[in-house]
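@channel sequence for tomorrow's demo:
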Amino acid sequence: MDRDRAGSRWPRWDGLLVALAVVGIIGMLLAPPHGLLDKADHVAYAVCHRIPERTFIFAGRPLALCARCSGTYLGTLAGLIVLILRGRGRAASLPGRRYVTVSAGFILLWAVDGLNSYLTLFPGFPHLYEPHNILRLATGTLEGLTIAAFLLPILNLALWANLVETPSIENWRDLAWMLIGGAVVVGLVSSAWSPLLYPLALVSGMMVVALVGFVNAMFGLVLLRHEGRAQRWREALPPLLIGIALAMIELTAIAAVRATLTVRLKLPF
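structure tokens (generated this afternoon):
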């Protein structure tokens, strides 16, 4: 699909915005905390409860995200990689009805396990079954795969002028390969293998920033009525970089507010 629009060129001041975004990103990377794992923890703190008992431990240190959130963000990355390798990188349509139904089942499993796990925070409160980090990780990964299947075509619609009229999940093989990618995530995270601490913590932290940045970029393009105009990556980079820079600011602000409320309200986590 070729969306050839009048005035499709990007504004001339996009170079200035990109420069400001790059300066902002570099500034945030250089700002405290300075340790790589500490930075990943700081980003994760904005979106995850980080309860130690519900987090996988590597080399005596918990991952940046809890088991469920690790599955969500790493599962999204795995899903996107699989879809791109399967030739769906420019897919412009959502999955077909049957795959939407399967995705709804994944979300239902995630929601049921999440609610059941939440109920155990209250001593003596009835719940369906005893929660386990593997279940949290697995259901979070299924949610992440679902996010990937829907995020990719929506992001493509917001960015690109030239699209491929194909769904992100076109057949059962696509779904099967996504599940294999999800299984890899579950295997790596649940292994608790010490050398994986840095890769998993850093990649999951970067995925938090990336997903928030993608959402920022999509909303910005739609609000500015500038969606669907990029012909090349050079034209797609400005909204993505600006979205990521804003994401880093937003996550830092959320983490700061959470830290303040945690101290003032004496919250347990």
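heads up for whoever presents: Residues 74 and 204 are 6 Å apart (CA to CA).
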